[in-house]
Amino acid sequence: METRERKRRRMSFTTVGGSSILTIFAVLMFVVFALLSLSTATANANLTRKSTDAMTNYYKADTEAEGILARLRAGEIPDGVKYYKAETTKHGVKRIVADGIGYVDWDAFATYSCSIDENQDLMCEVLLRFGSGEEAGYQIVRWQKTYTAEWKPDETIPVFDPDRESLPGTVTIDE
Asked: Which one of 36, 78, 147, 155 is most buried, counting C-beta atoms within 10 A?
C-alpha cells in the first residue's frame, strides 16, 4: 500500500510541475508581449509628436509668407524681400530681369524666405501685377520647402575609386 501512495505522490508532483512550467512560460510570454506593445506605443507617440511639431512649424512659416505676399500686393516692400521692378522698353513691353530669368508683362518680381526650423526654410518667389479689377493679380513661381543646413556626406561606406586598381575591401595577391 505504501508503494501506491508513493507512486501517487510522484505522479501528482510531475503533473503539478508540468502545469507550473506552462503557467510560468505563459506569464513570461504575456510580459514580453506587454513590453513590445509598450515600446511600440512609445515610438508611435514620439513619431506623432515630431510630425505635429513639423506641421505646426511649416504652417507658421506659410502664414508668415502669406502675410508678406499680402503686404507686397498692397504695394509695401517688407524687410528681407528682394524686389525687382519691371522696366518698360521703347516698344511699351514691361520686362523684369531677376536672377538671369526674364518675365514679360508683369510689374514686379519678389523673392523671400521664411524660416520653418533650424534646418529648413520656405522659399517664395512671386510675380505681381498692380492695377484695379482684373488687371491686378499675382502668380506664385515658387513656394517650396528647402533644406538650409550644411550637407555632410557619409564617407564611411567604401565606394569604388577608379584611381585604385582593386575594389575596396579586396586583397590583391602577388604571385
From this structure: 78
